[in-house]
Design brief:
Layout: H1 8-12, H2 16-21, H3 28-32, E1 45-54, E2 60-69, H4 73-78, E3 81-83, H5 87-97, E4 108-113, E5 122-128, H6 139-147, E6 150-156, E7 163-165, E8 171-173, H7 179-189, H8 192-207, H9 212-223, H10 226-229, H11 231-255, E9 263-273, H12 275-286, E10 292-296, E11 317-321, E12 325-327, E13 330-332, E14 350-354, H13 382-402, E15 414-418
Parallel strand pairs: 1-4, 5-6, 5-9, 9-10, 10-11, 11-14
Antiparallel strand pairs: 1-2, 2-6, 3-4, 7-8, 12-13, 14-15
């Protein structure tokens, strides 16, 4: 679901244990003490639809939408809900994560397919998934946002996203011959070069918090290392796709058969996880049409030209971070690696550390009890994490779009630092 700065590739080399654990998924909550995740709550039901979108580049994307709906019990009983993992997606996930397909159950989510949008116009949030992931990776969170009056649009990039499904039912799977997937395979075979890079650069990035020039130099060195240099082309494609959809919102609000008149195009936000957050952060350096951007555990890789002026955030930006990461017995802290950018970011930008969180706690994997047995998730209480993701995201965008109170400063687990 993201860059391999997390625990994914190092832990998935030895994930055969999950083939056995998955058979006992029904009892794992009792074995690992996994807290129950509360259902999303809000005044609306949740509907979902998807549509084909031709980006300015000519690439045809899939855009999956979660939206507020008002449904009777009778309609709910007769309407199909969006599956979490349809068979084609389960197959791609199994390949990506070296797990059996039955580990990705075809359970229904809480979103009802192809139902009308509730009356009114709603603020719009554009989401981008991480590397090697899929557009529904944060579906539980999207449902919470839709229940509370947001429309969420999640982009699928054909050939990059694990599975893209068009309106006519045709599909495109990820092209694993691409540079980023090949870099991941090299990392799976020999993680030591990237571990050496992290041990050298990450502490330096964290200590360069008051030296933007030094911070940028270090981030450019990281971005040009073998592990990450091939992401440059992918990020640029995603940025172009995101900006294309951002620019099409007026037309969608005017003409789309289901969304017409329901998009509050004056109130738009951006968010993303891992490499998707990198792309969203880059959009926020090039474009000021959104109110704010929120990044989930995304190191701001810098592929801009050496010697060129340092890119600046044009809209309020919030960097959220996982806690320390352990790979092959090496532990290093990844939080605050973007914080040197806060000083020059617009007021209302922030940095958030979630103690005990790992990279995948920022996705719906946080809600999977069986994964608590692996290093893919951190020690943070999964219910606490789910509530944080929902409440902080809602309040952050309500604050920047409508002047609501900004999210609370934090507690013993969540630590928030604002730049004003």
């Amino acid at each position: 679901m993201g860059l391999h700065i997390s625990t994914r590739n190092i832990t998935l080399r030895n994930m055969s244990l999950l083939k056995h654990l998955s058979r006992f998924a029904s009892v794992l909550p009792f074995l690992v003490g996994c807290a129950s995740i509360p259902d999303p709550a809000g005044p609306y039901d949740v509907g979902t639809l998807h549509f084909d979108f031709e980006a300015p580049s000519g690439r045809k994307l899939e855009v999956r939408v979660w939206h507020p709906a008002t449904l009777s019990d009778d309609v709910k009983a007769k309407t199909r809900r969006l599956p979490a993992f349809e068979p084609a997606l389960a197959k791609e996930m199994a390949t990506m994560f070296n797990m059996p397909e039955f580990a990705f159950a075809d359970d229904d989510t809480g979103a009802y397919m192809d139902v009308p949008v509730a009356d009114g116009a709603f603020a719009v949030l554009l989401f981008n998934h991480g590397f090697g992931s899929f557009g529904k990776q944060n579906a539980n969170q999207f449902e919470d946002l839709a229940k509370n009056g947001f429309i969420v649009m999640s982009l699928h990039h054909p050939g990059d996203t694990l599975l893209t499904t068009y309106e006519d039912g045709t599909t495109v799977v990820a092209d694993r011959s691409q540079g980023p997937y090949q870099a991941m395979e090299r990392f799976n075979k020999d993680p030591q070069p990237i571990l050496d890079l992290y041990v050298e650069k990450f502490p330096a990035l964290r200590t360069a918090i008051h030296d933007r020039a030094r911070h940028r130099q270090l981030m450019q060195e990281v971005s040009r290392a073998d592990a990450f240099s091939s992401y440059d082309v992918m990020v640029k494609r995603w940025v172009e796709d995101i900006r294309g959809l951002l620019g099409a919102l007026d037309a969608l609000n005017a003409d789309h058969v289901s969304l017409q008149g329901h998009l509050d195009v004056e109130h738009v936000g951006l968010f993303g996880h891992s490499l998707g957050g990198v792309a969203m952060g880059r959009v926020a350096q090039l474009d000021d049409r959104a109110a704010a951007v929120l990044l989930y555990d995304s190191p701001m890789l810098d592929f801009t030209a050496l010697g060129a002026p340092a890119p600046q955030q044009r809209i309020p930006t919030c960097f959220t971070y996982a806690d320390a990461v352990t790979m092959n017995g090496v532990t290093f802290e990844t939080h605050a690696i973007n914080d040197a950018m806060l000083a020059s970011a617009p007021k209302g930008s922030c940095s958030v550390l979630v103690e005990g969180a790992a990279h995948y706690n920022f996705s719906d994997m946080n809600n999977e009890p069986m994964l608590r047995m692996t290093p893919m998730l951190g020690d943070v209480d999964n219910a606490t994490m789910a509530v944080f993701m929902r409440s902080f995201t809602r309040q952050y965008f309500l604050h920047h779009m409508f002047g609501a109170e900004r999210p609370a400063a934090g507690d013993d687990v969540v630590h928030v630092k604002w730049n004003d």
